[in-house]
Batch of 3 targets.
Target 1
Amino acid sequence: MPRRNPRNALDRLRTPRGLHGFLKAASVCALLTGLLSPLSPAAAAATPATGTAAEESAEVTAAGAAANDHCGGQCSDILPPGQNGNATLAQILLNQAFGAQPAHAEDQLGPYANLATGHPGLTNDKINTFFNDASFGVPDGQAASTVRPAGRDDVTIVRDKKTGVPHITGTTRYGTEFGAGYAAAQDRLWLMDLFRHVGRGQLTPFAGGAPANQGLEQQFWRGAPYTEADLEAQIESAAAKAGERGDLALADVDAYLAGVNAYIDASDRGRYFPGEYVLTGHKDAITNAGTIEHFERADLIALASVIGSLFGAGGGGEVDNALSLLAAQEKYGVAEGTEVWESFRQRNDPEAVLTQQDGSFPYLPTPDDPQGRALPDAGSVEAEPLVYDRTGSAADADATGASSTAAQTATASARRGMSNALVVSGAHTDSGHPVAVFGPQTGYFAPQLLMLQEIQGPGISARGASFAGLSMYVELGRGQDYAWSATTSGQDIIDTYAVELCRDDFHYLYRGTCTPMEKVERENAWKPTVADSTAAGSYTMRVWRTKYGPVEYRATVGGKKVAYTTLRSSYLHEADSIIGFQMLNDPDYLDGPERFQGAVQHINYTFNWFYADSEHTAYYNSGDNPVRADGVDAEFPLWARQAYEWQDWDPDGNTARYTAAPAHPQSVDQDYYISWNNKQAADYPAASWGNGSVHRGDLLDDRVQELVAEGGVTRAALVEAMAEAGLADLRAEDVLPGLLKVVESAPVTDPAAKTAVDGLKAWLSEGGGLRTETSAGSKKYAHADAIRTLDAWWPLLVRAQFEPGLGSGLYTAFTRNLPVDESPSAAHGPTGAHAGSAFQYGWWSYVDKDIRAVLGEPVKGPLAHTYCGDGDLAACRDTLVTTLKEAAGRPAGQVYPGDENCSAGDQWCADSVIHRTLGGIKHGGIGWQNRPTYQQVVEFTSHR
């Protein structure tokens, strides 16, 4: 299949159909724009700082920061592709035409990618071959530029030569935050603007009507359909509840916004604003006519609603749960069907890998006699329409499907694959100090959603990563003598309610009163631009809101017409977490693990938080977990009646009683912690399906447990364990041995099957089940044929193993609850292709438990039935051998069918990680790794 230019989600922002001809004049346009525009801030940062004042400022910054740095040169970080996420029109055109990269746009991509082949035998002194030095300050002679934003004398922004990371130092709190806002706009203005429009459901009028843009605004606005009044009220509400810290947060926000807007004005006057504004028709490259709108408080809430829904909102799916339960009960009867459903749900599987190893943290226990269930009548569920009144290109026959598919492509890697952590107590390290390797797995975008920064000022001292546009504080990073990070925990803070309709389809019963639903609309229209040639079109997005949240589905329950609504505890509270982040950045507050846990208790999104200093480690699971009514089962839709509401629920502000801090999984100085979005603790059920005997968290747990048992753990050893786990095929490492045991329970005489078995065994014994290149840069896998065989075999064997016993209806329903596969190249899986994150969701535990049952091995928490061969070993073997032969016979071109990035049959490319463009600069693919996007390696040597 011939290669074509990449056209990823939102790609029309950079390469519309008509842009190729336009690019024939790229050199002329670049020259013209270069004459009109000064260097971009990133390019300027690559220019040596000059002048005594600049040099002295840089030296003072480095000296002051170093005095409070207790890491001793042993803190490192990385965030690909690079710090600079803004590009002028000239730089975009040069990138599109010739592949030229703006300064610091991808200089962290190479080191990040090289760890895949460079980690074996890693030593501490080589860590920064693959990571940045994350020490405070800028070393002597390494300041590339020094800026006093807007001419202020109370803040400087020093950028280092190597990476262009901003080191912001203020002498006043206002100046410090002003500098943080200015630096954020320097690095991510276009992205910030893009996502404030996504959060408002107004992306298409801003960036064009491409299917990806339609899909993005539809996806996010449905879950957070806020009015402007809602947005404006949330930041003030969050501050009002927090006393002095709340007042300080508001002042910080205002100073930060002032800095953002000062950069907008400066870049407009100097004509070095992001070139996407020209390509999307907001600015004129010749006359400079047009406006870049200033940012306001409400914009930050719009941004926060997008980030919160991507990474910090666990739960939901109650309607799909109901449908699969009904399918199970239809096949087996109510009692047995419920037992089968529960065995696949694995709410509290005894074989699941845990982050908190000791203790019990009961949350949402399964009631013996569930109250308030509102299960739909068979065949009655219909999704609530969102889009109405389509015109022009929005009315095309395939417009709906295209926008939905594009949204999945654009955001799935961020939504699905979220973060890992490896933290080892000093009792088991070589130095006696704790060691941590951790970071968020936030997908791969260009520019990246996160940005690096160092902030030093009154009450703030930190370096790390923050989401663009929300970077008034470091959100994940290090302080003077401690570091912290997070993984998405996903415990259930979302419930579905069945509101009974009255009068018509747009009135419902609220506590006995027939109440009108609130209609919230966005009327969006677009026209073609240079960046997006999508023909003119328009539509209206319409959401019906109730006291119990927005309407998601319509159905009947016992013959009564209902609307299913979705209510999450963080709805109308997108800004509440600001206080926790403020505390994490405050060196006067945070002096140890207990204060760390106290800070993250103020974060209402669902995260696992990890901490390390020179003496202690700690863990805490955050989130506003609503206390449910007695007797309800939050796995399923509930009647919207007062008896089944959250305890002490106030619908006006969407507040309730939340589980107390001691009820959240937590500890200090556990021997080690691992997290890869696995189950948090005993009796603390994960909202997502698939937390059973095999989980990608096992890839970390097995390796770290072995290191701890040996003792003398070093930073390099922990990095190596993470990197190896990031190349492991979970199916090969933890499930394939059992499958082969069944296959070889009798001699394998078929030549094709024998060849496949021998290849798989060689991959395990010689290659450890890792997906690794034959040599650095070869772009060919060792044991490529075995990898191809397993990729082809897995979906075939799962269907053949389970569908005959479950029946097609129940099997299909369960696959909607939990996809079968999520291999690196599985474009059909929940993460999509080229996303990096893999093996989070799949049927590995089901296959593992079922195969062990067939083999007669002990299984804790078994499935309700044995499915492979109906429990008969010989019949199960026949099923596996038949599907293995079919898989082995499938050519690479069929297993890896190719796409706009890869030729058919190119296995390495099919797995490769490709940054999805959100602006005008594109990057080449890198080899597959399953690891955090932003990552820290830390070991503090002393404490204040």
Target 2
Amino acid sequence: MSDWPLAIGVLSTLTMLFYFCAGDRFVAVAGGRMPWGMLGFVVSQLVEQGVWVFPGATPSWYGPSTYVAATVSGAASLLRMAPSSPQQRANPDHDPLGASEQAARGRERLREYAASDDLTVLDHAVDGLRTAVRKSLGHGSHPGYVTELVKALRMRYERLGRIQDLDEAVGAGEGADPARARRAVRARLLSQLGTALRLRYDHLGAADDLARAVAAGREAVGLVPPRSPYYPGTCGHLGASLHSDFLRTDDLDVLEEAVTQVSAAVKWADGRGYRRAADRATLCHLLVQRGQRTGGIGDLDRAVKLGREALESTEPGEALYATSLSNLGLALRTRNAMGPGASGTGPSPSTADLDEAVDLSGRALRTAPADAPEQAVFQVVAALALRDRARYDTDRDRGPAGDGRLGAALDAARAAALHTRADVPTRLRAGLLWSDIAASAGRYRDAVTAFETVIALLPRLAGRELRRADQEDRLGRHTGIAADAAACALAEGAPERAVALLEQGRGVLLSRELDLRADIRELRARDPRLADEFEELRAALAEGHGGRPPAGAPAASPAASSAGLRSRRRAQGERWDELLREIRALDGLAEFAGPPSPQRLVAGAAEGAVVYLNVSRYRSDAVIIAPDGIRSVPLRVTPDDAGHRQRALDAALDRRRSTAEGERAAAVHEVLGWLWDAVAEPVLGALKDLHAAHGGPGLPRVWWVPTGALALLPVHAAGHRDGSRSLLDRVISSYTPTVRSLATARAARAAPVGLPVPLAVTMSRTPDAAPLAGAEAEARMVCGLFPDTVRLTDEDATRERVLRELPHHAWAHFACHAVADRDVPSRGGLLLHDHLRSPLTVEDVSGLDLGHPELAYLSSCETARTAPRHADEAIHLATAFQLAGYRQVVATLWPVRDEVGSVFAERVYTELAGSVRSGAPVDAAAAVHRATLAVRELCPNRPQFWASYLHVGC
């Protein structure tokens, strides 16, 4: 007979010995060793009984070796299944065989779900993999099961949009110990973890999630060699994370790296003779992004080619089929938009690409489940394609209703914006597309509805669980929304609605802080239970707001960014929103912790008109709130006009440039003259009847609420150098970031209580900053006028000392350097003696609740200034001190000379001291106005010296 029985026995013996030495690195299921040993044992028995006969004499070692094999196999299985590590012994559910069975069921359920879209099956898959993870804790198979659980949870998030699934996936992935896992398993775990982190970033916006996603992706790629079958998957997942990073940073190098990674995955598959549809679909999308960014038509041609290949590699019913349809449609639509004739300067482009894009996007919508989050993405692509195709429609194409493809585009964008399972960024993008399509077609009522939907999403875009820097970044990407919304409302003839949209769509973080400080006396009288919950919840939200520790507390520990803390703050924020709705449903409390009604706005204008300066791509207007109602005045300003003047002013005043003072003055004069012609003169013309009826002493008051780039310009100093046309000679100007913050300041007015005791914080010498000779002079001046002034000078002026003293003083004077952070404005602040290790930031000050102090004078640089992309949020020191409780703040738009600052401060304080001693109300706005006139008289041809100072508040 053949000698193959001997070979089987020998192979069984060697295999068992190998498995026994190698352990679970090669076989995940411990019980898999036993069949090999038993097979050798059975063969040996058959040989011994003569059923199989060897050609020669049976080797003497054969029988004993098979007994050994069987014994080793059983012993190895028992040893592997027995709890051997402390972690295993501590796990009462330890059951590797049971874990293996549950994992196998989970995998089978995932395959079944992929074919059926049965959510119950998906839930069973997740439950089975959870059990496998629990039963394998401490076992070598554990990291592999965790990887599969993370993947299953990620799949369920992609289907249902539940952020809790991503929280669990990240927690499971980060809690796994991959030390015992082989490199390929570690790579798969890190790759799946990175994908979950990236999706959570896309949903919520926490930058540290994205950083960890990219880091995990890079480590995963580094763990697998290019020959590994896991290599293309790890490259593809890293490419997706890098794409999200590009969208955050707009760094083209990051996009290039993403393209490189996914291209490597595509090349790997091509080299082995097959196509990975997922990689081709991803690369198609990345090339569309790069083509849009660089204008490269070649990228778009390649994107279309890859999109077609991805679609050819998938079948209807497969998970990637709808995505492949939509991605190809997007590539075709983008190629048409950037092709010859798209700009209107060349020959008319063919509509073939658009026709195909419309067809593909429609098929994607019909293929994907209607309630799946990705449906909103497909609807956006469909809306883009339909809108572009509608531009070529004839009257016949539009049909009897005149809608045609344009109406279908509106329907698709509207449906995406209202899709409850889609993430907020996708819904917001869809809402902006909806509003743009409607406004461009002159359907302003529909556009306003779209903008209302978008503005309602802005607080959720900057969720309470995010760090403050992430909140500011998310909102900064969408500046100008409120201005466009108001413009459409004005086009619809609804100025009251325009004001409401401006109030709700600007100062989102400011409003959130004001909500926390609402007066609850009336609420307590109506419903003590709700009042108690309100106080408890606002105290919880105030602690560590947006990742910020309470003022004066040490820096947050790493645990402050944990998933548990995020989940808790998310739940608190959701309950807060529900609580406000309950409170506002009570009789008489409809405006609780919210913007004032139009009636209250008009009543508040008795002290002076409030003028919103609204600049939009659709139209620009001054929206005037006056005692006789709310009305608008057209302005001949565009966003480009305002942006050009803002950049010119910044360049002229940049102290890093060696620009002569005369040249600076000429640039400032040009801007001030333009502000008069384009803004101030039309507004004053509309207010002339009101001002003619002004019967009080002095000039009438106006509160300016500029939007966009106008918020960075000295509107209060608008005028021509000839002196006959100047806003300074017509009104006393103040600023307010929102009308609600002005109403809050007015409500905090208190009767004078005698001579104030100011706190004077002065820094003549500041570490790593230039000396300020005028700071000491300002301190002496304040002390001379108010002898009881408390001084903190140089080494005594630390963050801790200042925060300890502020609650005891109704007036505060700061003569020191200040810095503005253009990327994260809340990190700007005042430079005190210990600023290098413990800065006093905008975030610190805005977190204070000092009651109702009167005046903060900020004799520092750029204390009323923020970056253009954060203009709508007005995040700077002036508003921070207002939030802290100060009714009036004196601040600057740009740096001024030290000696000019001393002269200006003396003029202001001399006026204020006279008012205090006479018992008159403290009117810092009038004092700043007269000081500005005085310095202008001293140096009329140097507006950079006197146009920087402004007054915020009432």
Target 3
Amino acid sequence: MGRDLGLDGVVDHFTLNSDEAGWLRNKTGATRLGFAVQIKFLTWRGRFPRMRMELPPDAVEHVAKQVGVAASELGFYDFTSRAAKRHRSELRDLTGWHECTKTDLVKLVSHLVDVIWHDERREEQVRAELLRQMRAEMIEPPTAAQVTTIIRSALHQADERAVAEVAARLARAKDCTRRLDALVFTDPTGDDTAAVDGDDTADEDDTESVLADIKAHPGNVSLNSLLDEISKLGQVRAVGVPAKVFAGIGVQVVGAWRARASASSPSHLRRFAPEVRQVLLAALLFQRQREITDTLVELLNSTVHRINARAEKKVTEAFVAEFTKVRGKSGLLGKIAAASLGAPEGSVREVIYPAAGGEKTLKDLVAEMKATNAEFARSKREVFKSSYSNHYRSGLMKLLGVLDFRSSNDQHKPVMDALKLIERHKDSSTTYLPLGETIPLEGVVRKDWMEFAIFTPDKGPKRVMRTVYEACVFQALRDRLRCKEIWVVGADKWRNPDEDLPDDFEVRRAEYYEKLNKPRDAKVFIAQLQAEMRAELGALDTKLPKLPWVTISGKHRNGAIKFTEPEPQKEPKNLRKLKKAIRRKWGTVALIDILKEAALRTGMLKALAPVGTREAIDEAKLLERLLLIAYAYGTNSGISSVAAGEHGHSEEELRYTARRYLTAVGLKAAGVEIANATFAARQETVWGQGTTTVASDSTHFKAWDRNIFTEWHSRYGGRGVLVYWHIEKGSMAIHSQLLNCTASEVAAAIEGMMRHATTMQAEGNYVDSHGQSEIGFGLTRLLGYDLLPRIKQINKVKLYRPGREDEDTYERLADAMTRPIRWDVIENNYDQLIKYATAIRVGTASTEAILRRFTRTASHPVYQAMLEVGKAQKTIFGARYLRDRDLQREIQEGLNVVEGWNGANDIIFFGKSGELSSNRRDQQELSVLALHLLQTALVFVNTLMIQDMLADPEWADVLTDEDKRALTPLFWMHIQPYGEVRLNMGSRLKLAVPAPQEPDPEPEPAAA
């Protein structure tokens, strides 16, 4: 039988109405019950049941009571008999449902094309729309093969319609199609006979070089990279793709066209129909223009930062060297230290002064230190100016000519005016800016730079040093860009921040409030927050005397709170024995076989769809190649190494398949499939009830650094990237992200919770200290889930008061408390808070984009309101955390899970010493997502192995409570990740759980 629906589901979907009860009058016994369950199953699932096993047992019991027949009678009803078929025919006449005809197929395809042509290409979404329409039209689903045919036909026709629409727009743009064809044809007319015949090799190489340049990824932060990207942007703009050519066409559709163009060589593109070729190239240029613009902004920011960092390093080295030359300082320090230790209770005048040689010596030392600090800053500015003038100026000034900077805030008008000023004089060779110019200084030149920027002659007016002023302008520009107060036309990441917000918020305000489960009235929201604060603070204040692990006192040296971490949990005794038993039963299993078993059982690799529209690779061969490619990327061993194994696929075949099938979108979808399959396969008797919390943390991967993405990480001590994981309690990854080392982990934590796409209902997030902040607490409160951090410096945490009337309410907490929350700030900006939270929820902006707008502009009123919400929520959490030992252990155990996941990275990602050996960010991302897939495959198969092993009576009562608490499917003592790759599709792991068969289409259940 199927799974129970539960009381609500049974009542909603399996209660007979009066008409349906009337249809049963002439039926008795098993026939009566069988007829009744067919009625309700039809209205519930949109089709008839094929067998008794599909029926939920509690639903059968509910129907049986209504019709007065014992539920056991259903065993005598044959759903494949002639009588059952006659009953279905009778029900069709009674209800209006009918089988799918050829006419219906044509209409369904036409309907799908009308709905999806402009913005949808995901098969699962098209399938959902098809089944919804069939339910609306009361059409029974056809066979799985027919449904697949309908979906593929609709997708093909939808793409043809979209291509035709965009091609018509391109044709209306003067000479645009000719310039697009010129990217792949040596003859702009499209007559490429000479090139095909090999008579014009030089022109062919030049043509392919231009397209290759446009596709190329940027190098590392340098003047050459800056100039290359400027040239590349000029080449893209020269083609003249209209800015509105893709208006009304969904981002994923344009992205699919771009991926197809990127995967195709010029010779392949030449074979396409002209309209298709031109649309694909236009999509490539359209998205590359935005990406190159973003890259130029990144290079601008990184270049200014590099000039400053190198200046500081150079001056620091010089001053350290100079300091060591000064005699006597080290000895003086030693004398002072010895005197202090000898008389720790003595006064400074009595102990320190004599040891230092008198008060005058100390005053001279302080004066020298101050002079040294001022000289350090002055020298740093000199080096900065010199580095800018002698090397970087040419590239940065060219950048001003290709990027269009804008600002919506008049407060930053001085910087905008300064940009126009220095661009007007970019070719000048004079020392000073002209006297007749209005030169903005306030808000452009920092105070510590004024003495360098302004020259005061003995006679005449003050003059502004041109190159110094330019350097100041670029520093001011960088500061405004990073907080998006200044933005760039034509960019994506650095676009107008107003575009980050949902443009339909005014129209759909009520719906958006409902989706966030927030009251429309700000006063109600505030009252809820105040009530929670008072409840948690009151509970902590009451229980504090009985909590041996925490004391609060102003006498503590390092903060008012003194906190003792929970004691370690008892070590499990039988888990190692269980793992050894698994190894004895299944032997040492090759990692490729783990991946193969997971793929065959879950069908996850079907998510890797081709970027083109026609593929002639045999399905069995394709599956083998995708397994090998995923293994090559996920272990970092590379395609060349994997191609040398025993499987019958050449390196060229694997590389071709990787270009056509391996995409970030596909790998993410495959990860979602395997996560959902794991959740469905888990047995509650082994793993307990499903959890609603995940732990998240980052880990560092070394990476090649000839790109703008790889950065130095001070904590890990090397150049590389971060991978941010979201792992639930059962060691299953639900989301992963590739980040640069300076990215916000708070933003990454929120992004994973919002975008994981699995069936898990994530309601809480364990994070380390780097993953929390007051802004993070505020956003998570608005988004509707709990932020549960391990705060390392909890001794210094301040608890905010709910109101001024609570000044004397929490006496035991007084030393750790601070001012009241400013509720008026929240009330005045409540609607805007909801708008920003909605932007994150619906995906019009990334969390990082929102945080970037706030973090550097503390005066922003919405930022101030978000901070107040965050302070209130952090107070609620802090008070609860300090008094609740179980919560402390829960957070620690959750973070231990993600640390264990990070430890497995080194085992799985063994190739090339674990270094991401590509300078292309997209290739780095594919490697990380493939690693994600391999580790989730390991967890899935281990889950089945553990359940299979524990089903043996020998293990019935072996595991203790400590064992069950620490039981995890993330272990690898039975895995062989290394060695020659041997892929045998006929060999399967012997597991008690049967591999699933291909399911027939299943409509969504009818709404209650």
